[in-house]
Amino acid sequence: xxxxxxxxxxxxxxxxxxxxxxxxxxxxxxxxxxxxxxxxxxxxxxxxxxxxxxxxxxxxxxxxxxxxxxxxxxxxxxxxxxxxxxxxxxxxxxxxxxxxxxxxxxxxxxxxxxxxxxxxxxxxxxxxxxxxxxxxxxxxxxxxxxxxxxxxxxxxxxxxxxxxxxxxxxxxxxxxxxxxxxxxxxxxxxxxxxxxxxxxxxxxxxxxxxxxxxxxxxxxxxxxxxxxxxxxxxxxxxxxxxxxxxxxxxxxxxxxxxxxxxxxxxxxxxxxxxxxxxxxxxxxxxx
Amino acid sequence: xxxxxxxxxxxxxxxxxxxxxxxxxxxxxxxxxxxxxxxxxxxxxxxxxxxxxxxxxxxxxxxxxxxxxxxxxxxxxxxxxxxxxxxxxxxxxxxxxxxxxxxxxxxxxxxxxxxxxxxxxxxxxxxxxxxxxxxxxxxxxxxxxxxxxxxxxxxxxxxxxxxxxxxxxxxxxxxxxxxxxxxxxxxxxxxxxxxxxxxxxxxxxxxxxxxxxxxxxxxxxxxxxxxxxxxxxxxxxxxxxxxxxxxxxxxxxxxxxxxxxxxxxxxxxxxxxxxxxxxxxxxxxxxxxxxxxxxxxxxxxxxxxxxxxxxxxxxxxxxxxxxxxxxxxxxxxxxxxxxxxxxxxxxxxxxxxxxxxxxxxxxxxxxxxxxxxxxxxxxxxxxxxxxxxxxxxxxxxxxxxxxxxxxxxxxxxxxxxxxxxxxxxx
Lengths: 287, 426
What we know:
Number of strands of chain B: 11
Structural class of chain B: alpha+beta
CATH topology of the domain at 63-241 in chain A: MetI-like fold
Largest sheet of chain A: none
Radius of gyration of chain B: 25 Å
Oligomer: heterodimer
Helix content of chain A: over 70%
CATH class of the largest domain in chain B: Alpha Beta
Radius of gyration of chain A: 24 Å
Number of helices of chain B: 17
Number of helices of chain A: 13
CATH superfamily of the domain at 63-241 in chain A: MetI-like
Largest sheet of chain B: 7 strands, mixed
CATH architecture of the domain at 63-241 in chain A: Orthogonal Bundle
Shape of chain B: globular
Order of helices and strands of chain B: HEHEHEHHHEEEHHHHEEEEEHHHHHHH
């Protein structure tokens, strides 16, 4: 009896286990193997050449600037995204007339793929085909080079990402807000707490799990930024918006060197792993 | 009833043998006998091409399928994804029977053994000498030929005849020197309003090589050494090209947006009718508004002469194709006079051959004839590391040319040129 229950359990778990093995563990092992090998894209595995691929990372003049840029971009995006999505969640938290409309409106950009959204914004920003410059000119203003300078290119991309993801994080925070029992606010009010006090001392602490999830998702997502820069800026102008994942792409598909690309991937994976452990620990300790 | 163990083992062994023989029986791989004229026996062939040259490929494939037993299944892949898809497939031996390729990337694939050697088949063609010479050359490794020209895309000057007339220039006299090109651009720009002299993709390495190198070639200089391992892009001729464009930028003769143009929209300016003269891909000819009065001219050298970058796609049979004779049947057919004239020239496209210019369609379309004549003199640069050096937005060419055009006017380009050489030789 116990034996057959065990067997049934294993059978139920088997599909997931197979899925994880095939789509997660196997590729991971392959990347590890690639990172240790001389592996040209067109020719395939040419044998071990440790540690050349890893040494090459440090020699790559684009690597450290890309790390710096990726961190800077992540900092900006995470602060803006969490701030804005929390604000949006608070605005639409109470059921009033019209909240349904605003919830849908804020969430709508989430339903678009990132590549499609990037192409859409590329069109908006384009001096050739975009509507923004003609609109500015109609208002008697000078046209703006939306992607032409390093600063403009960074902020134009940040606007896209915040527009695209604020609604998604709003939903997560909204669920968090709705799970806070009204009694707690009631008790705080009886104790004489004002609106701001109950926000900082009731809402924020009780929203911590949702905020933690939003933090981890937005940090990880931003550190792995690729599509938006690939489409909007191609890393330019003058290599000012090259992210780490773009370097991986460049090694693999411009320089045809899968070994070097895999080595950077392994380093990024290790960094993300450490970062996520730190984030989880920090969030758990304070809770 | 119990199944005897020994019998089970015997059945298993027999089954395994059967499966194994079934697997090995099908493909004869590259060992098949070469039939020089090709074979049309109802085989289904697979073919890949990139979206940029879809129109021409599709026209050829449709006509072939309609008239042959063999059937080709054409897959069109987005241009930006093409390298990724084809490269990955080559590494995994999963290439289709036929695949076209941006000709500048050809050396990567021919030297990696992704294409089948078709030297004998090409030599057996009675028009072999007429195939676009620069494409053939780039598809050759140590005397072995792997590729034939498929769709050609040349850089040529487009100029707006109406704007020329308004600016007091002769619409039938396009620039014949590079200085004259700049003069014309300035003259048109002086019309003012929405009208601009010229345009270029200032953040697009591929656009620069395609449109600026012909002036260097036409002036008798080279952009790389013969092996494609050393950059010569700080030569006096190259510097004069940069300086001329720099002057045009400083005087506001170039339409706004050039500085950030990554190559996605650089050809969309001219057809709107406000640009005087600019070098563009010849494939744009068929996409111009019908009521637009445009002229086409070769890109001139500093003191005259003419050249062009012969781009576009070459095509070959993949090394792992099991239908090489059938695949060649399509390639041979597509290069025959009738298809070249009726499917390409009739559409205003450049032909893969230089001996068919005297046809009824070009007689009515002098711009297309001008372009086709350039195939003979044009160049296709060769380097194993071409893409990662010149097309890659993070490659070393873009910093060199951007410094020369937008940076410090007295900058010494030697170090930046050395970076290009380092990338070519790595």
